[in-house]
Predict the 3D structure of the following.
Amino acid sequence: MERFVQVLIDGLATGSLYGALALAVVLIYRSTGIVNFAQGEMAMFSTFIAWGLLQAGLPLLVALLGTLALSFVAGMVIERVIIRPVEGGEVLTLVIVTLGLFILVNSAAGWIYGFNTRSFPSLFGDERLDIAGVAIPVESLGIVAVLIAVVGILFVVFQRTKVGLAMRAVAMNPESSRLVGVSVGRTLMIGWGVAALVGALAGALIAARLFLDVNFMGGVLIYSFAAATLGGFDSPLGAVLGGWIIGIAEGLAGTYVGFIGSDLKILVPLIAILVVLLVRPTGMFGSAEVARA
Amino acid sequence: MSSSSRMKRFRLAGWAFVAVVAIVLPFFLGTYRVGQFTQALALAIAVLGLNLLVGYSGQISLGHGAFFALGAYVSAILIVDAGVPYLLTLPIALAVCAVAGFLLGLPALRLHGLYLALVTLGVAIAAPQIIKRAEGLTGGTQGLSVDRPAAPAWIGLADDQYLYFLTLVVTAVMFLLAAGLVRGRVGRALIAIRENEIAAKTMGVDLARYKTGAFAVSAAYAGLGGALFTLPIGFLAPESFPLALSFGFLAAIVVGGLATIGGALFGALFIEFVPVYAADVNTALAGVIYGGVLILFMYLLPGGVMGIRRQIAARRAASQEQDAPAEKQRTEQVKTAGQV
Amino acid sequence: MSLLEVEDLEAGYGPVTVLRGISFEVDGGKIVTVLGPNGAGKTTTLRALSGMVRRSGTIRFDGEEISGYSPERVARQAIAHVPEGRGTFTGLSVEENLKVGAYVRRERDGIGDDIKRCFGYFPRLEERRGQLAGSLSGGEQQMLAIGRALMLKPRLMLLDEPSQGLAPNLTRELFAILERIARDEGVTLLIVEQNANLVLRFADYAYVLEAGAIVLDGDAEKIQSDEGIRRSYLGV
């Protein structure tokens, strides 16, 4: 029983990590209709920047905040410079451009930081809490809490601020947005900036849990895509819930289904994607437009 | 009229030149380089297959590395475990992959664009893991060693040259087959499907048959390429088929030119000689350039290398239109009446 | 000097030129309508004014030249455009649609009051203020689109075929409200319409557009009463 609860909590925490990256992917999809295959690599690069700031002697929290700010700017620049020329184009064009970005960012990180594996400190420490007789890592709880906080902040921004309203309007109807005076280009940039910021946070949390190297986000990406697919590609709430479901399912399958063991856990997100797309392409909370993509 | 036949002669001359270079190549290069070009040819077959699927039928696949691996492993396992002569393993690998491609093509019927990309991405990611798991058959992470084919005594070529020409012949045959396929009814049907599925359906095109067929054929090509790819190296392992390989195929068809036959050759050369997966600092810079080139291609040369000719023709046509008399513009006005 | 002065406006899409150098003006406080058959260039005219299509020529608004302005900048000049098909934000609520209409305004205080004013003109919208705009009927969405334009505190409102898809009695109601708005808010209206009859009844001045050129203009009353004109140009 204790094991079960631990697997559950562990799955919830891992799922939060998937959900965090999925949130970044969904934010971009909602605002621009693009699936950013390079989201994981951008998050990886941000994490390396954080690592660099740490090496320079900055305290963890300061390094993280600095990284979030820099990632926000980087996201805006990437939208303006790399994505803008092909926005609204064919699906294949966008896939290739984001794949190209994937390769570029991945290689750039390798070129600048090298290919060694490093460790990244955790925000929450190594302690375990005793809750009703079960030993639960503080880190797991912290990750879930951070994700919930992020979702809360995003909700407030989107629903209660002028900028958030503009972002939602642009996602729905760019032309009408222009007519009421919204600068569509600037709004898209902000959208990518926010997504990059969320991705950076995800990267830092994941690196603390796993390790930091040039390829550490590669494996996470498919899990996050599965979470986004399950939740509905334009639903931030869906991304988070989808992440939790995938995380828990993966944990349970890995522990209790012998045939899957630890190396075929990758089948969990794949089967999830396949099942969702064949049975209910809009996922749990996605809107109808999603299926037509 | 004469300009189009001049174009045709130009193209034929171009291909003749390529053919001549291809034939004399192995006599001027060392063993290692010849092996690389042999691999490039094998890649070209796979890239061509993917182009049939993506460029002609409009279905995205990020997972053709999996079929490449499947063909390679089928061939290797037959050689090592069953003692099948390597030449015979080629059509078997082709057939197995055709079936596998068809099987993937079935659920693909219900998926489009981004979603198809996602599912095929998943297949590409799963493939190395499944290979590792099926240790008994595939040798797991240890991989399989396959004896390199030796040149028959009567041919008077070195081993690497023999393998090169074998691959060259197969490649040429597959290219000609593909060219024949796309020039005829099949090609037109595929392009109709790519442009507008609903319209194609009303014209009587059997969507399911052509789309799954495209998957089957492209997978078969990829598998054949995979089988030929491993012969020069003599060794394969799950690491030989990373996600980057599937990305590379996609990049290759973009660089070479979507919906072109010849472009596959350029694309294959691009991915053979420009490393896509950086493993050390030297190759990392090349990776940056690789990614940057891909992005630039989508801005400047969306038609790839083969598309340069098309772009020039299009630009020439556009400048002619600007000089069109007012009458032509008025006709256009009436046509676009719905817009105003 | 008129509020809006247009000289030699050419506009089109890509290589196709739709407007072939038209000139017209709109006096402040008036209701002006642009009539014409399908394909004449009516929508293109409004889109050219808003900077949404490629154009050349001179556009002057209150003396200032706005010929090269982007749509966002045009909006900031207090020119509101109610597009063809309403352009409602279907995923936002009625109230949010109105709020986003006030996007360009710097002073945020008056917005709540202005929303109330909108509801004053369109009580049906107030009933549905929390509903998603996509669930509204065609007529209600048209009202919402006009309300959104009002939130910008426009000096000039461009309306593209507001009667499209609406039943005649609803259209009459809508035009009556528009007349009230023009009078009470001091907004100049430039209305593009297919339905000549209805709009001529309450417009001050009319232009008739055909194949990208203005073939006729004059007081709305005169045009409406002239049988010959109506038969030749307005298909009545």
